[in-house]
Amino acid sequence: RRIRENPAWATLPIVAMTAHAMNGDRERCLQAGMNAYLGKPVTPSTLAAALGKYLSDRPVSSDVAEACDSELSRALLQIQGLEVGPAWLRSPETIVAYHTQLERFIKAHEHQMTRLREHLASEEHDAARVLAHNLKGIAGLVGAQRVAAQASKIEEGLRTGAKKSAINYRMRKCAAELARLAQAL
Prior knowledge:
This protein has helices spanning 2-5, 25-31, 44-54, 71-77, 92-109, 112-121, 125-142, 145-160, 164-184, and strands at residues 15-18, 36-39.
């Protein structure tokens, strides 16, 4: 609002980027005078697309490149619920690096549901919500969209005080998605 009060900046493109995508955040940002709102995960291509709307007179780079065709890239592209970003498909080296990142993601989060259950059993809802939030963000960054979606539902349920049975259901679904991704890898 303060930026918009200055006539020299009345048309300055302002894009909000936030890790805390809570209900109503987008609307509050737009009402304050921002042009766009990006919740995480923000990738180079989503940022480029948002900026491209306001910087049409300037070239804006993107992640689009000709995909490197390999056995590993074809296998990764076949995994349901996994969105392999174009930047990872640029060369055989980046594809291998991406596969390594996915393996690290699975290894680091394979026991996440157990920790979530422990926090819930101890009535540590804030700690459980933080775990779900972190899992959502990291899963989104590596393209594990189904895991990210389930973690988001867990986080939202914890934030809004959903019944334990509903949260446990989402945790089972999230654990199943993590296991399915691990098996596919």
